[in-house]
Design goal:
Two copies of one chain form a homodimer. By secondary structure, chain A is α/β, with parallel strands linked by helices. Chain A contains 13 helices and ten strands. In chain A, the strands form two sheets. Chain A has a six-stranded mixed beta sheet with strand order 1-2-10-7-8-9, with helices on both faces. In chain A, strands 5-4-3-6 form a four-stranded parallel beta sheet, with helices on both faces. The longest helix of chain A has 18 residues. Chain A starts with a helix and ends in a 12-residue tail after the last strand. Chain A has two domains: 200 residues, Rossmann fold; 91 residues, Rossmann fold. At the A-B interface, helix 12 of A face helix 12 of B.
Chain lengths: 312, 312
């Protein structure tokens, strides 16, 4: 289990490399939901997502001798860009394995941070075998996108800033995919504000974390198919353990609600957020009675969307 | 000519009713343009646009006896919503004349603020005659969207906040349509930072302000046809006089640059801005040599876009 002092140290360690993002409120959405919502804008974060927190903490924690060989991961998403930037900030190499089907903008972002990219077939197996080869050829340190203590402690700093800036809240909500942000958030809340409930939001169409949480047994994803493309991954053993111990509930939302919530944030808050970021608000729209009259903090996880392929 | 003390008083008067919007920077866009850009986010303003500043100042300045009959205007855009909200805040009626072709979302926004809406044919003549009728029937005070001293002094407060928050800048840029924001900005800059250049940005396809400025004679619009639909109006005698005296230059940008600039702001800053707001950055993209190495403040004027009709 990560200790609270690890989170405190992570926050000091990464402070120079990440933004302290603002917390926004929106009277129109409060009025629609009958609750008081406080949105932490990690869409304004470096690389456009909270992932830079965990990646930076993990990269900075590597021993000097080990770090010289660089870092590696497989990802087509925000973790790839985050690790690439974190490595460049430390002056070491990042080796990123990406599916050859990755959109051009994501390739360009990763390449723009100076990472070495190795393309592979778009299957989990191809990603893992390619990564193994890259790691054995380069001696790079594999930084898992979420099932990694240093990454979790880095992600935990977002909720720490949120609570520092908002004061007491009744509930904190984040979306759950692999569970890095959720487990980090839960550690922070248990230490800073034990009475605050931690509720995760997950797409119904990718509900493996929900099923794992309710059964107590890590469940595999069942052909996830959701507009919230940042939440397709499944929990890891480490994040699952923390989530089982510290999270109060996981609630699912349907695709229509996710798209409606995303559009509300775009139209009413004038913020560009990716679909994954809208899942907590989607849960609130589907279950207003659970949030009515309550103060709820929400982490808007990222803003990297393909403007040519919007869901509305 | 409006006096500086009118602007200072306007700022005090409207303070409780408008947001003090933040100033954002973006390293990626600075690096693309080779300059330091400071964006004042009036897209986060109440009603989603700076127009609430001028409307609020004008409504609050009305004599009590006169105000009791309410206020009126014709507009299909941000001024309509702004005047509706400003009137509701003072507890008086707003009568808005809108073309019957106005998008549903705009009608709903104005109706949502409790205004009386009168629809008319979508011509300037129909708008003006309908407004005349509404004014004579109700005794409401006509608040012109820009050719009005109180409105101009209200809009001037955006640049005041920008300069207070950024300190000295070399240039301030705003888009120009009717010239309310531009003339207000120019008054503020001449009084707070006389060495700062005021440069207006206008779509090439709606360049009547440019032609008026260069010839010194108020020119009519020539079938304006631009994606920047907030800038279709032409200068008024009052705004033109202030602009001729205080503005340093007006530079035009093409439609492709405006769309590219809008997309850059969406993708890199994660901000939803309307096309009009992107015209200053479009001018910078087309004329980088004029801005290289300089600190330039830009007012992002609004964020009200129809997500079903994006230009990209």
């Amino acid at each position: 289990m990560p200790q609270w002092k690890d989170v405190l140290e992570a926050h000091e360690r990464i402070g120079a490399w990440v933004h302290r993002t603002p917390v926004f409120t929106c009277r129109a959405i409060n009025s629609i939901t009958g609750s008081e919502l406080l949105f932490k804008c990690e869409n304004f974060q470096k690389v456009g997502a909270f992932k830079i927190r965990g990646a930076t903490n993990a990269v900075l924690l590597l021993d000097k001798a080990f770090a010289e060989n660089g870092v590696a991961t497989h990802s087509s998403g925000n973790h790839a860009a985050a690790l690439a930037l974190a490595a460049r900030n430390r002056g070491i190499k990042a080796h990123i394995v990406m599916p050859e089907t990755s959109p051009l903008t994501k390739r360009e972002a990763v390449a723009g941070y100076g990472a070495d990219i190795t393309f592979c077939a778009p299957t989990l197996e191809a990603r893992e075998t390619t990564l193994d080869r890259v790691v054995s050829e380069t001696g790079a340190a594999f930084i898992h996108p979420y099932n990694n203590l240093s990454v979790i402690c880095g992600q935990a700093t977002a909720a720490k800033e949120l609570l520092e800036d908002t004061g007491p809240v009744d509930i904190i909500m984040v979306p759950v995919g692999g569970g890095g942000l959720l487990s980090g958030t839960a550690i922070t809340v248990r230490n800073m504000s034990p009475a605050t409930r931690v509720i995760a939001a997950e797409p119904k169409n990718a509900d493996d974390a929900f099923r794992s949480f309710k059964t107590g047994v890590l469940q595999p994803p069942l052909k996830p198919n959701t507009v919230a493309d940042g939440l397709l991954t499944s929990l890891g053993p480490l994040t699952f353990k923390i989530i089982l111990e510290y999270v109060d509930d996981i609630i699912c939302a349907g695709e229509e609600s996710i798209i409606r919530a995303m559009r509300l944030i775009w139209e009413r808050m004038k913020l560009i957020v990716e679909p994954s970021s809208a899942v907590p608000l989607a849960v609130i729209l589907e279950n207003p009675q659970l949030f009515k009259g309550k103060r709820t903090g929400i982490i808007l996880t990222g803003g990297n969307v393909d403007l040519d392929r919007l869901p509305f």
